[in-house]
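W.,

You were right to be curious about this one. When I first looked at the sequence I had no strong expectations either way, so I just let the prediction run and decided to look at it fresh. Below is the sequence, 402 residues in total, followed by the output.
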Amino acid sequence: MMEMIENNGPLKGLVVADLSQLAQGPWATQMLGDMGADIIKIEPVSGDWMRHYSYGNLYPEGESISFISFNRNKRSIALDLKVEEEKNIAKEIIIKADILVENFRPGVMERLGLGFEAMKELNPKLIYCSSSGYGSSGPYLKRPGQDLLAQSISGAPALNGRKGDIPIVTAVGQADLLTSLFIVQSVLAAIYSREKTGKGQKIEANLLNSIVGFHVQEITAFLHQGHNPERSESGIPNPWLGAPYGLYNTKDNFLAIGMNSVQRLAQIVGLDKYDSKEYDSNNILENRDLIRNDFNLVFQAKTTEEWLSILLDRDIWCSQVNTFDEMVEDPQIKHNGMIIEYEHPIVGNIKTTGFPVSFSETPQQVYKPAPLLNEHASEILKEFCNYSEDEVNRFKTKNKDK
């Protein structure tokens, strides 16, 4: 079993009623939990959808890697919100909560009698955050909202890949996880506002807005230029940028070259063809594919480490290109403590990513592993609903029979 660790995060004392599933809600509430908030995860009796899905079909000891990734530092209680007694349990939790996060389809919480207007009557100071695919109204209201679909509608995939290729979505769930970040900053801003006004409020986030907002520079450039950017034929990874920006082959691996003067880079690597004032720019769009291909041939003459030694010493913006196995051994990753370990009661040792921000006075840590379904029902019922031991046992027996 995991050793009990005291929660001393900067958000200690805040209570979050977490009715979210999948990724964008759970990662947001996990971040709040990492910072010390008490996350009460209210799950369906069958469990969060993510308990039954996992990246790579990875289920160590039957537990979903995807669920574990997004749900540490939480307590779980399983409730059937269509049963009056169990809905009332959810209400008792919400009454005592500072923040509620949910990502049901628009209208579901209202039909359950748990919508913002109803909950505001019970808890006027509640920060109520709803997250959806496209928003709570509009022509896509009844469409399914999911990361791939939101990325596709946003136009962002047309920025990735080579000219003539099919548009490319990112492998990471970019719309989901960006929405998580927007949820966290928004609910904390609302908490600050509540401190001044004494009033709660409703926050709405959605995948489509998040991914569009994230591409502020790219979309602003398009709106100014008036036509779509053209992707590079040679693999420069941003259609708005020119040579020498991009990834290159080396003798043994790859090399990333950032924003550098083409002329200066040419002088260092011995590519005389570009050693003239006309190439003294870090963003040459004309003939960018030819320039990129010429540099690619030169970089193949040495290993990545050899080039890093040469280029970093001359203050060229460059880096190695890590795979995951190389990244976890990277000295800066280790120094930053971004790979952490903790014990899960079923799986055992879990290795995962740490919290990306540090606090000098209120250090964040893993004080609870991802919860087992309904694991904390007894303590939650006693703490939020004043259930007696007999009432707890009756609830757990009834819950088990479903």
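Here's what jumped out at me. The mean pLDDT is 94. And, maybe more interesting for your project: The longest strand covers residues 38-43.

Coffee later to discuss?

I.
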